[in-house]
């Protein structure tokens, strides 16, 4: 599959759909509400976007899915996860994606293609709403290795260190699933080994604390 063409097709359609936001007509809402507005607008036009390129739209998934919208291209399931990135450097934006296990299940078991759709936005010039700065679309498995990060939330949460816009010139469009699984499994193993080592240290500290009969009620981490 031509991942770059697929990304360009969806990106072009979304740019057309949200063109008025680029022109300065921003929703007078906070960042979270802005994101909800983005998703609703895509939902309302998803069938039309897919039909334009001959893609088969798939019903909008439930909340437990790792993607927000989906279609099939030549029988291949393509899931699109919408991320609204607040470009205000003073505000926290964690780049959360999904759980490690859910990502691998979708890619390996479901044979799906997981796409990130990123909307970069900032305060409008009148400070009363949000302006759309850019739209980027790319498959998750072709992103630069340095963008991937895993944090220990539950069974492990996949996060992105950078925005798609920041790494756009370094995307490896021809990377195969085998190549991605190779680097991602190494990253996951390193993460879980680190978490295990931290857990072992905490277990040792708690055991020592208990053996000392809670002397002076001091706990050393």
How would you characterize the overall build of this protein?
With 221 residues, the chain is of the alpha+beta class. The protein is built from six helices and eight strands, in the order αααββββαββββαα. The strands form two sheets. Strands 1-2-3-5-6 form a five-stranded mixed beta sheet. A hairpin with a 5-residue loop joins β7 (148-151) and β8. α1 packs across α3. The protein is globular. The termini are far apart. 25% of the residues are buried.
β-strand percent reads: 15-25%
> Structural class, from helix and strand content?
alpha+beta
- Could you say which overall geometry the principal axes of the C-alpha atoms support? globular
User: What is the succession of H and E elements?
Assistant: HHHEEEEHEEEEHH
Helical percentage: 40-55%
Residue windows where pLDDT falls under 50 for at least 5 positions: none
Q: Report the strand count.
A: 8
Number of helices: 6
Q: Report the end-to-end length measured between terminal Cα atoms.
A: 50 Å
Overall pLDDT metric: 85
Largest sheet: 5 strands, mixed
Q: Major sheet: order of its strands?
A: 1-2-3-5-6
- Radius of gyration, in Å, reads 21 Å
Short recap of the structure:
This protein is α+β, with helices and mostly antiparallel strands and 221 residues long.
What is the secondary structure topology, with strand pairs?
Layout: H1 3-17, H2 19-22, H3 31-53, E1 56-58, E2 69-73, E3 76-86, E4 96-99, H4 100-109, E5 113-123, E6 130-139, E7 148-151, E8 157-160, H5 164-167, H6 177-211
Parallel strand pairs: 3-5
Antiparallel strand pairs: 1-2, 2-3, 4-8, 5-6, 7-8
